[in-house]
Structure formats: C-alpha cells, structure tokens
Amino acid sequence: MVSRLTFAYFACQPRSFMQPTDFTKLPADQQLDTLYFAGDILANRYEGDNIFLLYNLRDFYVELRYDAFTNQLNHVSAFRDTNQLEPYLPYLVD
After folding, report:
1. Which of 66, 68, 63 is nearest to 84 (CA)?
2. Hey, what CATH class is 2-92 in?
3. For 76, left (φ over 0), alpha (ψ -120 to 50), or beta?
4. How far apart are CA 38 and CA 85, in angstroms?
5. What is the pLDDT of residue 91?
6. pLDDT greater than 70 at residue 64
C-alpha cells in the first residue's frame, strides 16, 4: 500500500516537487517502486562485477548499481549533472 501511495503522491505533484536528495532519502523499496511506476529506463551498462541502470525521473536522473552475481542493490545515486551521463553515452546514441 505504501508504494501505491508514494506513486500517487509523486504523480500528482508539480514537476519540481521531488529533488534528488528527497529521492535518495526514501526507503529502498519506495525508491524502486517510484522508478518502476514513474521513471523511464534510459540505459544499462556493465562494469566489472556491477550492473548499472540509468533512469530518468522527471527532471533528474537515478543510477542503480547492482552486484552482477548476487543481484543485490549496492548503491543509489540521484543527480541532475549531465556530466555524470558520460559512461552511458555509447548506449544512448543511435
């Protein structure tokens, strides 16, 4: 129920309501639910033993880092700085 409420609240808010720091303060399950219901996946990439997923969430980006062997979420990063998109450029350009 919490995830639906989080999504409903997020979906009804003005475009600038959630900041990247607000997103990273959410519990992990609410972060993932918000990405699932309101985010757009842009790219994925592999680096060493990690899988990285890049999402767009309205006016900022979210990067998830998973352990490729355990499929465990290790890190969540939310940002607006487009310089942080550089590792994804080969996967975003046709």
Report:
1. 63
2. alpha beta
3. beta
4. 20
5. 84
6. yes
Q: Please state the domain extents for the chain.
A: 2-92
Asked whether the whole model's pTM tops 0.90, one would answer no
Q: Which residues of 22-56 are buried (b: 16+ CB within 10 A; e: fewer)?
A: ebeebeeebbbbbbeebbeebbeeeeeeebbbbbe
For residue 5, CA distances in Å to 2, 9, 10, 27, 87 come to: 5, 6, 8, 14, 34
Query: pLDDT digits over 7-63, tens only?
Result: 555 555 544 578 999 999 999 999 999 999 999 999 999 999 999 999 999 899 999
What is the model's pLDDT at position 70?
95
The DSSP 8-state label assigned to residue 13 in this structure reads S
